[in-house]
Amino acid sequence: MSSFLVKICGLSTPESLEWALSAGADLVGFVHFQKSPRHLPAEAAAALARQVAGRAKTVVLTVDAADDLLDKLVAGIAPDFVQLHGRESPQRVAEARKRAGRPVIKALGIGSAEDVAAARAYAGVADLLLYDAKPPKDASRPGGLGVAFDWSLLEGAPTPFLLSGGLDPTNVHDAVRQVRPFGVDVSSGVESAPGQKDEARIRAFVAAARAASEEGQR
Ligand SMILES: O=C(O)c1ccccc1N[C@@H]1O[C@H](COP(=O)(O)O)[C@@H](O)[C@H]1O
Questions:
Q1: N or C terminus of the chain: which is more exposed, having fewer CB within 10 Å?
Q2: How many domains does the chain have?
Q3: How far apart are CA 181 and CA 106, in angstroms?
Q4: Segment 151-165, tens digit of pLDDT
Q5: Which atom of ligand 1 is nearest to the CA of 167?
Q6: Is the ipTM of this complex over 0.85?
Q7: 107 CA distance to ligand 1 centroid (A)?
Q8: Cα of 144 to ligand 1 centre, how many Å?
Q9: 172 membership: H or E segment, kind and range
Q10: Coil, helix or strand at residue 158
Q11: Is the pTM of this model over 0.90?
């Protein structure tokens, strides 16, 4: 893995996984959430994880998963990271991390300074934080909505974190230069339709994110 992380999430076919790997993604994510257009059953995610064969780190994304589901996903997929993208409390994050026996990424919805303040309770509990746009109350899912938020809210936010929410090949450069995150995460912005990944957009996203990160190091 490089020091600046690029995560492509919501991969659901061998072909799109190969696009992400050949573009140079550090992390590849598989969504296990039935209401998502990117939902993958555990067996299908396990097959894709085998295809990765060490070329990137694998992430299984869950939403408020109970212990039995967490156990099943970890045993079947053997992901490098578990992403918790629901309303998991800091205590639940700590429990899930111990139970899974692997590092955890905790996603937090950001819509106000209060949300950033609330993130402090997760610092040092999760291995990596992930800031996404706060979803509307009536949203069918808590992420993967292609919605961005006011990045200036993240000044002084707990680290290390991945930035996500509405990123795409056209805005990721500015996002990285402004926010200086530990890495970036994208799903909708590299698709041609919900759940349909697009090779050219994946390549353009990874290239733009890396270029911005390298500029920041000069
Ligand atoms: O991708 C989904 O469908 C999804 C479902 C439930 C929780 C999270 C989900 N996706 C994650 O949301 C963020 C932002 O996505 P986007 O780039 O704005 O579409 C990212 O971490 C996705 O992996």
A1: C
A2: 1
A3: 15
A4: 999 999 999 999 999
A5: 17
A6: yes
A7: 10
A8: 3
A9: helix 172-179
A10: coil
A11: yes
